[in-house]
Amino acid sequence: MKRPLVLLACTMLINLNADASKLPPITPVPHVDLPRFMGNWYVIASIPTRFEKNAYNAVEVYARRPDGNVATSFHFRNGSFDGERKEIRSTGIVKPGSGNAVWGVQVFWPLQAQYIVAYLKDDYSQVIVARDARDYTWVMARTPTISEADYDKLLARVRALGYAMDKIRKVPQQPSATG
To answer: Terminus of the chain with fewer CB atoms < 10 Å: N or C?
Structure first.
């Protein structure tokens, strides 16, 4: 199990998109109210890592730790709604001075992958997590499905951030499932 986690961390740290160096850094939202941000986030679409490219019912769960960081649990079904349940645990290390909008995500010490809250709906119902490298992104919501109009608006935001839209995968979600 440790080898896949090592590969995940290394993959996330490598800039796989050579054109990203020509793009400006992604601007995070000004502030994230961490207690309000905690809980379940359903992955609606993403440019997935190799470990989640066949994810169904993908859910990211955040919980505050006593040290101020964030315990994360990403779970999904692999390959189908009935596929094997997979889970990746990590720690979100909130960067000081970022308004809680920039984290380093650590699957194992000492490597941290960049995590930027690039968009957060005012009511905390939808979020876009991005990276300056434009190699991965996650569009998430508090519900397993969203309207097509909201989906289109969120993807337009992802496009405006400089992402290659042909790499986006809509994650299959069953409304009654929790992964």
So the answer is: N
